[in-house]
Amino acid sequence: MRRFCCAVGALALIGLHWPAAASAEPVQCDDPSCVPGINRVVGLGADCDNVTYFVFATTDWGRVVFCDSARGLSPRYFRALPVAGIRVFDTPCDQPFNQMAQAPDGLFLFCGPKLDRSGTGTSRWIRGDHYDNPNSNF
């Protein structure tokens, strides 16, 4: 009986310390507070180096900013539009245009129009770094 109790106790302790299996479902994230990398504190207008991945940060007063390169100048932090959290690239966005998000892999996304060959457009999460022109995705 004593061995049985010790074995059960040992298994219980192992079970407590065993890592839980990773969930296949992505974590729901609908606001800036849960976006990975956004907890960096930067200055508005400060230099930055990546306009494609993990572009979001915050100022010391809590304003959300993003790294972008305006008119071909060196990248800097600008005030961000509303950040919708984590979204998936090229999926429909039912939010209004002019919202930003981050893909699970860190890609900078923007809710904007994507035209098809017939000239009709749908609201989709497109790249926010201007890498591709959303009006010429044929």
Structural summary, described in words:
By secondary structure, this protein is of the alpha+beta class. It has one domain (26-136). Helices cover 12% and strands 25% of the residues. The protein has one helix and seven strands; from the N terminus they run αβββββββ. The protein has one helix spanning 2-17, and strands at 56-58, 64-68, 76-79, 83-86, 100-102, 108-115, 121-127. The strands form two sheets. A four-stranded mixed sheet has the order 4-5-6-7, with no helix packed on it. A three-stranded antiparallel sheet has the order 1-2-3, with no helix packed on it. A hairpin with a 5-residue loop joins β6 (108-115) and β7 (121-127). Residues 4-24 and 133-138 have low confidence and may be disordered.
Could you write a compact summary of the structure shown?
This protein has one domain (26-136).
